[in-house]
């Protein structure tokens, strides 16, 4: 059988798109779904929850409430009173600034009062940021 003759058969041609779909579906399985990343971030955030609330009506904690943090100006929450360094930083929280702050609060905003040394694991930080982005 010649290869060209094989492709001239409509029934056999239908197999090619089906194989492509299966191949692409299999490759997609290797990518981590966003919902898994958010769930991972929520679990990783548990250590942050000691000081930070994440619901709009949550009682005050030691650190600022992080509900709606993405898009908020750093140091804009009245309670607890933010450090002058954070308030005057000019930062508006987004994925990039949150990642940098979680990595090294003291380097990102020298003089801030957050008693946390930082997180070196970039994947874990990305998961926490993905979780924070859902808090709206």
TrEMBL record:
A GO molecular-function descriptor: electron transfer activity
Q: Which PANTHER family match?
A: CYTOCHROME C
Q: Which organism is it from?
A: Croceicoccus mobilis
Q: What is this protein called?
A: Cytochrome c
Q: Which residues form the signal peptide?
A: 1-27
Q: What is the lineage of its organism?
A: Bacteria, Pseudomonadati, Pseudomonadota, Alphaproteobacteria, Sphingomonadales
Q: Which PROSITE patterns match?
A: CYTC
Tell me which residues make up the Cytochrome c domain.
Answer: 36-136
- Keywords for this entry? Electron transport, Heme, Iron, Metal-binding, Signal, Transport
Pfam families for the chain: Cytochrom_C
Database matches in InterPro entries: Cyt_c-like_dom, Cyt_c-like_dom_sf, Cyt_c_1A/1B
Gene3D superfamilies from the entry?
Cytochrome c-like domain
- The superkingdom of the source organism is Bacteria
